[in-house]
Amino acid sequence: MSKLILPESIEFNDYKGFTIKVDQIEGTETFLGVAMNQGSGESKAMFSAQGNSRNEVGRELEKYIDKYRESVKPKLIIN
User: What are the φ and ψ backbone dihedral angles of 58, each rounded to 5 degrees?
Assistant: First the structure.
């Protein structure tokens, strides 16, 4: 079985309205990630995390996003 080789920079699929991008810091074993929301009519939010693996950084960003979503009141739209 061969190893999966990933590029240095990875952009994950949309997670609850946020785009997550994780990069390895050049010359180190540390990863840095950023999550930004892209929703229209929604206030801009951005989170960052640092860790020893892509998965660790992704999980940390997902925790931040989940906490943010809990604190934001849903908007009622009546047509």
Answer: -60, -45
